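Final report, section 2: Outcomes. Of the targets proposed, GDP-mannose 4,6-dehydratase is the one most frequently requested by collaborating groups, and we therefore present its record in full.
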Amino acid sequence: MTTKNKTALVTGVTGQDGAYLVELLLEKGYTVHGVKRRSSSFNTGRIEHLYQDPHVDDPRLILHYGDMTDSTNLIRIVQESQPDEIYNLAAQSHVQVSFETPEYTANADAVGALRLLEAIRILGMEEKTRFYQASTSELYGLVQEVPQKETTPFYPRSPYAAAKLYAYWIVVNYREAYGMHASNGILFNHESPLRGETFVTRKITRAAAAIKLGRQEKLYLGNLDAQRDWGHAREYVRGMWLMLQQDKADDYVLATGETTHVRQFVEWAFEDVGIKLEWKGKGVDEKGYCSETGKCLIEVDPRYFRPTEVELLLGDPAKAQTQLGWSHETSPRDLAREMVQSDLKVMQRDPVWKDA
Ligand code: NDP
Ligand code: GDR
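The predicted structure is given below as tokens.
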């Protein structure tokens, strides 16, 4: 079968990765079914440019209301869409929020993955349907080995990571127990101009743009000493797709192999709007950054510290490079630049920001 007549089902279609993945799959000729949650206001902004009027003949992007906590709904959507490939991207994906909503996070992120796998089994689609699970470098948690690769032991450090650990292992189990083509992509942090505004990179690039344009006074951040392996989301969704094109299902790390301090990302973002920062504090819980003019723009606020932190993530993508032919292109430095430029543009265009 060529990709031209394949059908994919994507959960989390309204999120960052969902948007880039749908774009890729449509380009490849797939018919794509997406699961979106009901919301009191529009939540399809990231895929608006891909929207297809359901009244036209044979639309190739079809959206269904659904939720990872609702088994019957998921079974019905899988039955209706008859997918060749399922990409399970839906999740309560914010690590810090998972400390406040641990039970919901487990329900959506852990049991949600099980519900989809069971839907495949209940409908007798084990032979037909391939499955991608959005696993995460958060599984590595407390550092056991650097760089982290497929064989590195897991040590989750949050309710989010513990939920994703269940999802990881249930995927492995269904692969072994029922011969399903089910793969885990253990993806290190990936960002883009579409990144959610409360994740640290986007929070920083938006603030740098807003401060530059005189629309924000100060940025409050948490642990500036954390280190992350940041890649570009557009490149990572290609890796997801490649995993499902292999004859055999397996688990793969996608990462850049480069790690950066949050502190460094802050400096890059402000450099990109022409503000040079000087570090004034002695430690993470003291003060923050001031600009050359002496105006203090960034302050550390302990409210953003996590009860247990993941201090260092650095991935080794060698297996994906060798077996999938996947590699990243964008460096963290270029990623910061692209995100800042995009936020500057968005703010200059947005009437709310313009009038503020
Ligand atoms: P986002 O937070 O941008 O998107 C998450 C998506 O899941 C949104 O579409 C959201 O809907 C949806 N969702 C949340 N809860 C439910 C639910 N109960 N039922 C149905 N849909 C739900 O995440 P990303 O796109 O960044 O990440 C995609 C996946 O990859 C997630 O599973 C994440 O945990 C995982 N991951 C992400 C990494 C990253 O660096 N981005 C790295 C490793 C793994 P809504 O828009 O309505 O909120
Ligand atoms: P992470 O991403 O927890 O790695 O999870 P996030 O951007 O939230 O945090 C990265 C690091 O920055 C530190 N930090 C702050 N984080 C946020 N959100 N806000 C702040 O103000 C702030 N200040 C410092 C954090 O403590 C952390 O160390 C992301 C998500 O996409 C997960 O779904 C995914 O699984 C992992 O990446 C890989």
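The chain has a mean pLDDT of 95.
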